[in-house]
Amino acid sequence: MTEIKNIPLNDLHVELGGKIVPFADFNMPVRYSSDIEEHMAVRESVGVFDVSHMGEFYLKGEGALDLIQRVSSNDASLLYNGKAQYSYLPNETGGVVDDLLVYRIDEDEYMLVVNASNIEKDWNHIQKYNTGNVEMVNWSDDLCLFAVQGPKAIATLQKLTHIPLDNIEYYTFTKGTFGDVKDVILSATGYTGAGGFELYVPKENAEALWHKIFEAGAEFDIKPIGLGARDTLRLEMGYCLYGNDLSDTLSPLEAGLSWVTKFTKDFVNSENLKAEKEAGVKRKLVGIELIDKGIPRAHYEVCDAEGETIGEITSGTMSPMLKKGIALAYVSKAFSKTGTEVFVKVRNKTLKAVVKRPPFVKTGV
After folding, report:
1. Buried b (16+ CB within 10 A) or exposed e, 254-284
2. DSSP 45
3. What kind and span of H or E run contains 69?
4. Helix (H, G, I), strand (E, B) or coil at 268
5. What is the pLDDT of residues 120-149, one digit of tens each?
6. HSE of 67 in the Cβ direction (CA atoms, 13 Å)?
7. Is 257 helix (H, G, I), strand (E, B) or coil?
8. C-alpha closest to that of 311 among 340, 344, 281
9. Which of 15, 202, 247, 365 sits a CA distance of 20 to 30 A from 331?
10. pLDDT above 80 for 365
11. Distance CA 261, CA 81 (A)
């Protein structure tokens, strides 16, 4: 049995009324009020997620870039100081070890941000290819991570720093003093499509900074947000979740990650992935929007008009913004074109749906 850990501010979230559930080997707040209320707070104002369960690895040394290039799919040589990049770690058998963010701090200094349930697996995988003795430090237990998201995020956070937040472009970051705490990383790499920042905070300063953020956002009715709303928010954008839409056995090319798969370099399993791309994938991960009323869930079958199975849902929910069921699903390539009519089996019903290219919700961010 895997030991379930507490994030550093667990007691605070209990005091705030958070419903705590096991998720990715951590006890995490899934909601404080209701998923819909928290979802709308992020879309319309500002909310704060404590996602301190995520993993952070620090890589330093002359061979740091070469190691990242070897284990990741994207081209990290394009990064400059203060730039972040979405990527994934391919495994040797055609699947994905994890998806991650790569941050370039300096020429030979990088931070990798990985999914909580994969911290040990990712660490071991990267170390396996660390033949150049690159210095690796696991920062995961030393940092807290707050995602402050929503159209009022900048107005809230700007009260706590002299750093001009308007100048931090999407997928860039800076490091400086925030709320009187030094060495906070402020990163414009959200997972909601609502705008905002992710703050990497030294653990010992986390609780004080949490309270300062909520004082600063009081005029905007700032709210703590749980994993329930995080899931509906990311699904409205069509963002993948490892363990659902990506896994050790699912092809990253079928998942639509060709845009971060750069064959201009050699990386783990690149030859096989290149051959797969040239041959053409047989199925694709697509967005599906229900026309009939219903809520699609993971593992529900997707069918054609004759009732033949053509795919399977990997993530699904009721969109609070659209008031419609939405999902991500792997379907046969012949049914992957936007606008294609498909059907979803929900218990004993077959519900009409249509293939739609995400994002399902246009946010203007």
Report:
1. bbbbeebbbeeeebbbbeebeebeeeebebb
2. S
3. helix 64-71
4. coil
5. 999 999 999 999 999 999 999 999 999 999
6. 27
7. helix
8. 344
9. 365
10. no
11. 22
Q: What is the DSSP string of 148-174?
A: EESTTHHHHHGGG-SS-GGG--TTBEE
Check residue 363 and give its pLDDT.
86
Per-residue exposure over 134-172, b if at least 16 CB sit within 10 Å of its own CB, e if not: bebeebbeebbbbbbbbbbbbbbbeebbebebeebeebb
Given a contact cutoff of 8 angstroms between Cβ atoms, the answer to whether 237 and 287 are in contact is no
Q: Let me know: does 63 contact 133? Beta carbons within 8 Å.
A: yes
363 closest CA partner among 199, 149, 219:
149
- CA–CA separation, 33 vs 39, rounded Å? 11
How many angstroms separate the CA atoms of 291 and 271, rounded? 41
Quick one: tokens of 219?
């005029």
Beta bridge partners of 319: 324
Model confidence pTM above 0.90: yes
Q: How many CB atoms lie within 10 A of CB 204?
A: 11
DSSP 250: S
Instruction: Please give the backbone phi and psi of residue 47, each rounded to the nearest 5 degrees, phi first.
Output: -145, 160
Distance CA 88, CA 58 (A): 17
Give strand pairing partners of 55: 114
| Arithmetic mean of pLDDT, 68-94 | 98
| 206-235 per-position pLDDT tens digit | 999 999 999 999 999 999 999 999 999 999
Whether 344 contacts 289, CB under 8 Å: no
What is the reported pLDDT for 348? 84
Q: Determine contact, residues 216/225, Cβ cutoff 8 Å.
A: no
pLDDT value at residue 364? 73
Q: What is the 3-state secondary structure (H, E, C) of 278-337?
A: HHCCCEEEEEEEECCCCCCCCCCEEECCCCCEEEEEEEEEEECCCCEEEEEEEEEHHHCC
Instruction: Tell me the one-letter amino acid at 285.
Output: L
d(CA 328, CA 238): 7
Spell out the residues 6+ positions from residue 169 whose beta carbon is closer than 8 angstroms to its own: 188
